[in-house]
Structures
1.
Amino acid sequence: MDNELVTVLMPMYNTKEMDLRMAIESILSQTYSNIEFIIVNDCSTNGCEIIVEEYSKKDSRIVLLHNDRNLGIEATLNYGIDNAKSNYIVRMDSDDISYKDRIEKQLKFMKTHPEYSFIGGRADFFNSKEGIFRESNFYGEVKKEHFLRGTPFIHPTIMLKKDAIIEVGGYPISNRTEDYLLQMTLYSKGHKGYIIEDKILKYRQDSDTIKRFSKKQRINEIKVKITGFKMLKMKWYQYIWILKPLIAMFIPNRILMFYQKNK
């Protein structure tokens, strides 16, 4: 495998210090070292950009960008993509932890399987109180039917080709369902995705994660499903799955969290 540059793209907004440090260090300690690490600060108010500046003084691979105002995750990601020098873009969230050989494994797969425009991987789900409480199980080629329930990808495990994202106009503005709609859009344009068997990320999921999904966002998810299903030419009876976020709207957060831990 040649020593091709890989861009790691991480949006940041008011991330807790310890979580941010662990996320940054997990990228800087990767076995594949030829990276540019773009961190886009979406007008944080807790001073977390100072932590990034601290690391950037020690490691020139870090590129810290700033939004002029708070734009949300979709516009923040698109800003980072516009500034990426590599065609291979690794998504990272500022409170997750990448395993040290993540980039090496994903780049090797992408190089040997050029038919895929984006790939994900398996992950360990964790939180600060319990540590790792479950792991994702699905891997293999993703078919359009896999999008009926929701996205089969854990988005911060994704590696994408920049030219494919540009082709479809970047991340759509979709109120916290940017990953789901982007992936369905890519599929509708003939692109394919794959989830490798390796676990490559510790994915943070706690009660705050569940609380972020408001009723407005659940309604938006219904709209995204309808839009995506039309693009993918789903069968009429498959539209029953648009009821899933509607049902979730009326389930207490503690029950949703219990389900996430035990599914």
2.
Amino acid sequence: MKKRILTFFPLSHADRTELAEAFRQAEWLETLPETYRRLEQSHRALAAQNQSLQKQNTELQEQNASLSKRIDLLKTALHQRKTEPDKDLQEQNRLLRTQNEALTKQIAALKDAARRPAETKPPAPAIQDSFMEIRDGVLVKYHGKAERVIVPGSVTEIGMCAFMNCKQLKSVSLPPTLTEIGACAFRLCGLTKIELPDTLRSLYTQAFSRNRELTRVVIPESVDAVHNQVFMGCSSLREVTLPTSLRILGADVFKDCHPQLEFRFTVQPGADARSFYGMLAKSCPQAAVQFRKNFLKG
């Protein structure tokens, strides 16, 4: 049997270097599938992240467009507010100026009368008519105790507190010459009904407050101002008719009235229903809800 003789030839430095590089490449090739798998996972994760970022970018663009529209609307509204003042505020301002001028004239007349000597012009005598004290068209005070009262046609104004605390008073007939009912004029009476004339323009603070048996009121279209707490505490008041001619509706006008108080409205042709609704919303939300339901359905 022949013996094999293995002969080892010494490797040069260059051969050893080449052989080591070949081994390194072989090891690198073995890791390629795992490296590819990891790269593929990273690619999928980056694709999902990119899709999420694109979605967020779309949402941000939509929000930006919405904000731009709102800013444009606010700019337009602000411009209109500056160029076209609110008509309702203008009308209220006009009425307040008129009232202020009237009060200024009354104060000036009183001051002028106070400066004059008493003998130059005696004061106008009070007129007694069925227990009524009437002075210059103003019913100053009622001194009677009747359940039904007829106010004479010479009266144009019911003065402050004229009938206050007349608890026995059930009804009153007002003349077609009446234009104003003063503050607390019929406060704490026993009125069960009241008919307001078509010449009436103003109802002042607490004019009919605490009439606990009053059930129904119709405010005529001639009235443009109903001041604070006019019907406050009328706990039986269940039906009120309001005209759209109103320009002033004070605070707490119907406070502590019947919980099922129902409002009716007389709408004049050409009336600014939305302006009227805005005034109701500020002063009497309960009436505003009923007005919107019946007249602002759109």
